[in-house]
Amino acid sequence: MARGSVLTWLTTALALVITMRVDAQAVLETGWSCEGHVVVLGLDSDRVYLGVSQPRVTLDQALRESWTVHSAPRTGGERSREQLRPRNVQAWEELQDIQHVAMHPRGRKALISARRNGGDFDVFLSHRTPSRVPGGRDVWSSPLPLDGLNSEADDVFPQWQGQDISFASNRGGTFQLFQARAALQYLRAAPYPLEVPGEVLSAVTVGPGFTWVARRLSEDQAMEVVRVSWPEPERPLAEGWTLCMDGVVGHVTVREVESRAKIRTMTLDEHGCVSLRGLPSGQAWTFEWEGGGAGITAMAEITSPEGRVVRRYALSPENGFAFVLLPLDAVAALENMGSLDGSDWPKSTLAILSYERGLPTPTSDSWRVFQGWAQGLQGQSERGILRVTGHTDASGTDDLNAALSLARAEYVATQLQSLVKWPKERVEVEALGSAEPLGNDPAQNRRVEVRWVRSLQ
Q1: Angle formed by the axes of helices 364-375 and 398-419, to 10°?
Q2: In angstroms, rounded to a whole number, what is the distance separating the alpha carbons of residues 94 and 152?
Q3: Tell me, which fold does domain 336-457 have in CATH?
Q4: Under CATH, which number does the domain 235-328 receive?
Q5: Quick check: 313 and 299 in contact, CB under 8 A?
Q6: Burial class of residue 19 (count of CB atoms within 10 Å of its CB; 0-12, 13-18, 19+)
Q7: What does the pLDDT look like over 149-175, one tens digit per residue?
Q8: Domain limits of the chain?
Q9: Would you say the pTM of this structure is higher than 0.70?
Q10: Within 10 Å of residue 7's Cβ, how many Cβ atoms?
Q11: In 183-213, which positions are buried (b, 16+ CB within 10 angstroms) versus exposed (e)?
Q12: N or C: which end of the chain has fewer CB within 10 A?
């Protein structure tokens, strides 16, 4: 391992990715500060992790010295020091002064900020190949410099944002956040879409409208972590959307599906119901009922403001008294009650195709259903666009999954142009690999989602 390592953060739960719209002004709230610099590193389901420098040192000096790792409750509270040991990776010994290591949540790759040849800090990427021998050691690749992102200044504290990357750089004089898309192979850095006064080193989103940011307002201050009310929830559920649990009592915890991060805990009223107001409707959420036990079952229902039951789930010990609320049908179409208001929008704005393992073409059953859905799009191309997103299960490598999800999405996009004469320029194709699973069932995760999105012009 390189000498002079400043901070090696090797957890497998660094990223909570919530896709939201960014259009609200940030509101700051106090988080953590001390005589040294404090940065936010990442989170798991219940804790947020912080890096703390030596007291009363400049930021430039702190970046080249050792830091300690602390954890605190995810939504704020007293911090406590963690006892972590840097991982000894032979392939990384060629790097000098490793400043920070961020493991991807799936553990197959790592972002590294380090110096090379005595220069400034740059960002590197290393991949892990599991050992084929039982009990053998995994092999990490030699760190690859991401020179499409790196600058002649210091590029530090890289973090995973799903498959994308964020990092801090002082290429403009003061540290600000930048991001790079995996779809562009990390070849271009762009400003991170978060505007916070002062100098910024890191940001971690822990829930809708809730992001921790490490920032300082002047050079003579230490970095502190503050809460920012950002990003704005995308299509939050309105008043009237309700979860009812068949008259039972207790608490229901809402978690982000992939990271298992706790978003909120809700208390059922005397009727066994609780409001879902404010929960973003455009993504999947896991709901866990905490009142279950051996031999107990319950029925959960999601009800719209009009009183329609749009989801019903049987809860039992076999499914852990949990269910995944998917952004489908009536839930995905919260802003599109076309069948109720007489509008000329499609009756359904979302179609999902299913796939066998490793195949680029959909199953015959899901294809037949999709063809019927696609016919309902006739004449809608002037009013909206189609967003086609490919997904895979987690059985392949990241590169193979990315290629397969792209092949699936491009096949469907081509068929849409043939089936309903949809203009090519009004189809957006995206490939997410295995980055956004719907749950633990691989068959459920092998899919292509096609969304009709209303045009704003």
Answers
A1: 40
A2: 20
A3: 60s Ribosomal Protein L30; Chain: A; (3.30.1330)
A4: 2.60.40
A5: yes
A6: exposed
A7: 999 999 999 999 888 999 999 999 999
A8: 28-228, 235-328, 336-457
A9: no
A10: 25
A11: eeebeebeebebebebbbbbbbbbbbbbbbb
A12: C
